[in-house]
Amino acid sequence: MSWGLNNRLNRVLPGLANGTGSVMFAIDHGYFMGPTSGLENPKDTIVPLLSYGDSLMLARGILQSCIPQDCSLPIVLRVSSGNSILNEDMSNEELCVSTEDAIRLNVSAVAFSIYVGAEYEHQTLVEFSKLINEAHRYGIPVLAVTAVGKQMNRDLRYLSLASRIAAELGADIIKTYYCEDFSRLVNVCHVPVVIAGGKKIPEADALQLAYNAVSDGASGVDMGRNIFQAESPVDMIQAVRSVVVEGVSPKEAYKKYKSALK
After folding, report:
1. Which of 27, 45, 196, 227 is the most exposed place for a label (fewest CB within 10 A)?
2. CA–CA dist 174, 195 (Å, integer)
């Protein structure tokens, strides 16, 4: 691993060096969901949260139009696209942002979804491999999102399969879902694993999810809707950070979160 790639990886996930978890803040939902609830006016929602995350995952358009140019938060750029929620099969994605453009945007990592077991599995895996070739040439880490189609189960067998394939192809970070016996998934991946927050759930449950994932070996969380759709996004991201980075219990973090709402 080159010094530059390793340096960028540690900026995206600073907990790797500190022996703690890291908080990635995901707001890339609009690339296939459109005006997602809570992100109708992205700049108003995002800017107050920037100082509490370790890195920010988003698409090119929102980065260019909504993120202040003096932002020092490491950027993880979504570079795959090609589908929307209107399609029954959402696996038809390809590489749609060049590494050259990612460099111009000064990103610290790039993110790509692979759809193992879906109709376009082959296409996404080949495109992902080409991205690895190009991004690594310039020392840019690649995050693999183990996207789950409508017919896929979020169980250990499937998620371990998808995560290990991504790692074998050269991914530097795996983003996947939390599942039963999650520690076994972590053990078969030789690169850092972060968990996706998924759909909005009650805040107490989201904090417990973050705690369970880190306790079972995850290098952090990459949460979006469970932060920006919370009753108080600023207080929620701080609560998530206290659990993931500071080791606060989810019950104590939730108690502090509820107190801040009063």
Report:
1. 45
2. 8
> Which of 240, 254, 171, 257 minimizes the C-alpha distance to 25?
240
Of 38-47, 69-78, 137-146, 190-199, least confident by mean pLDDT is 38-47
Token output for 84: 């929307």
CA distance 212 to 61: 33
Closest CA to 28 of 134, 145, 127, 124: 145
Per-residue pLDDT averaged across 29-41, rounded? 90
pLDDT digits (tens, 9 = 90+) for 231-255: 999 999 999 999 999 999 999 999 9
Round to whole Å and give the CA distance between 228 and 48: 11
pTM of the model: 0.95
C-alpha distances (whole Å) from 6 to each of 21, 95, 138, 215 are 17, 23, 12, 24
Residue 139 has a CB neighbour count (10 Å cut-off) of 16
Does domain 3-261 bear CATH number 3.20.20.70? Answer: yes
Q: Distance between CA atoms of 195 and 211, rounded to whole angstroms? A: 11
Active centre residues (catalytic): 175
For residues 149 and 117, is the Cβ–Cβ distance under 8 A?
Answer: yes
* Number of Cβ within a 10 Å radius of residue 143: 29
> What sign does the CA torsion over 29, 32, 33, 39 have?
positive
